[in-house]
Amino acid sequence: MICSVLMWSFSILSLSLYSSIQLLRLSTIICKYTPSLSSWRILLTRVFVHPKGIALLACNDQTDLVEKKQETSLRLNEKHPGFISNGVENLILQKTFNTEEEEEEESMKMISKSMVRKKKALRLVIPETSLREMRKEEYQKEYEIQGRDYCLASRRGKREIMEDGYGVINDIMEDSKQAFFGVFDGHGGRAAMEYVVENLGKNIVSALGEIVQNGEDGRLEKAIKEGYSLTDKDFLRQDVSSGACATTVLMKNGELYAANAGDCRVVLSRNGVAYALTSDHTVNREDERFRIENSGGNLSYRNGAWRVQGSLAVTRAIGDVHLKEWVISEPEIERIKLTTDCEFLIIASDGLWEKVGNQEAVDLISRENGSIQSCKKLLPPRGGRDDITVMVVDLGNFKIL
Predict the structure, then answer these.
(1) DSSP H/E element including 95
(2) Contact status, residue 263 vs residue 184, Cβ threshold 8 Å
(3) Which of 168, 219, 220, 373 satisfies CB 3.0 to 4.6 Å to 128 for a cystine?
(4) CA 126, 132, 135 angle in degrees (round to 5)?
(5) pLDDT at residue 66, rounded to an integer
(6) How wide is the angle at C-alpha 380 spanned by C-alphas 374 and 383, nearest 5°?
(7) Could you write out the DSSP letters of every residue in 269-311?
């Protein structure tokens, strides 16, 4: 009796399995020869990626199946170029075969994203001094540089990290008589100073190019102000609380344009006589005090100096997002025609000018003929709390006589 029951059960199971196989074969034949209709093409398909290709597990329309496998394989390779070549197995992806238009649109989106990832921004100019080079000097106590038409010496103060920086761009527009020089003094960290080193010179040169193309050579001051403004606005978007004083010199057409925002300074030697081309932006200036108080700012005396909102001793700088309502980035600009008696420039951070007078600095540079040794001699033998950076620029190459 038990054997009979087992035999009947086995027969029923075999018949069910046989019927299922026949139904599957019939479905396959129907799928193979049924014409492609949009209503039949919407089906979730599972795809296994193997080292040698793709296995399509289910599809209600197998017309042109080989082409579909190749198309799917290409798309997967574009999106994940290393999957098949690296032999990754058992990766399950899901793909919906909708209308041909939707497939093409999705493919274009994938290609566009790939192009965006691969696209690299072009550099307008390449500063002679890069940020990578400066980071090597971040923790150095002292260093000096001999460049073309300039020399520079810098000494770190009592802080652990150097917050001074500098920038040089030669041969602007492939003209050896056009150049950019800058010295920058950061506060509240290196972030603002590093950003200014990388971007201020390039932004000024970019604005300069637009003005020249428009035939507005007489409005170079506008290009400089636009460069300062753009650098400030872009840095403020980073929402970092540090700032940087900036002093720059632009050489063009036998003239120099000295600009500053903060307390770095440019001094010109003319026949051995010192002429300050910039004026420090501090609370000691009556016009700066009036501007800040007129805009609702508060001035208070703390740690030996008058400060904006009890915090910052300078009244102009790039950055300082928490004080931007009063500490503006607009530079003051002095334009000078380079004549035969113009000898050299001293561009330096306030760490120098707190200890050395303008004429004293010019006298020392003159005795050393503007060599790198002269820059080093301007660094006090006993460093103070503040960083000191001194750049001397020889004006001989930039004159048009």
Answers:
(1) strand 91-96
(2) no
(3) 168
(4) 140
(5) 39
(6) 140
(7) EETTEEEE-S---BTTSHHHHHHHHHTT--EEEETTEEEETTT
Cβ atoms within 10 Å of 347's Cβ, excluding its own? 27
Residue type, 315: T
The encoded tokens of residue 53 equal 């290709």
Print the SS3 string covering 176-235: CCCEEEEEEEEECCCHHHHHHHHHHHHHHHHHHHHHHHCCCHHHHHHHHHHHHHHHHHHH
Q: To the nearest 5 percent, what fractions of the chain are helix, strand and coil?
A: 40, 25, 35
pLDDT value at residue 278: 98
Residue where the block lists tokens 């607009």: 330
- The angle, 0 to 180 degrees and rounded to 10, between the axes of the packed helices 220-236 and 191-213 is 140
Residue 211: the pLDDT is 85
Structure tokens at 145: 């540089």
Q: How many Å apart are CA 31 and CA 392, to the nearest integer?
A: 83
Whole-number Å distance between alpha carbons of 40 and 43: 8
Residues with Cβ within 8 Å of residue 239, at least 6 apart in sequence = 321
pLDDT per position as a tens digit, 262-292: 999 999 999 999 999 999 999 999 999 999 9
Round to whole Å and give the CA distance between 110 and 113. Answer: 5
What type of residue is 347? I
- How confident is the model over 315-341, as a mean pLDDT? 97
Look at residues 235, 239, 326 and name the one whose alpha carbon lies nearest to residue 281: 326
Within 13 Å, how many C-alpha atoms sit on residue 125's CB side? 26
- Structural domains in the chain plus CATH codes: 41-120 (no CATH), 131-281+316-398 (3.60.40.10)
The one-letter code for the residue type at 293 is E
Number of C-beta neighbours around residue 269 at 10 A: 24
Q: Is the pTM of this model over 0.70?
A: no
Nearest alpha carbon to residue 243 among 138, 314, 159: 314
Q: Measure the CA–CA gap between 110 and 71, rounded to whole angstroms.
A: 14
Decide if pLDDT at 251 tops 50: yes
Over residues 120-130, the pLDDT tens digits come to 333 344 445 54
Distance, CA of 180 to CA of 169 (rounded, Å): 5
Instruction: Tell me the three state secondary structure of residue 266.
Output: strand
- From CA 272, how far away is CA 285, in angstroms rounded? 28
What is the rounded CA–CA span in Å between residue 204 and residue 182? 11
Residue 56 corresponds to which tokens in the numbers above? 């399509």
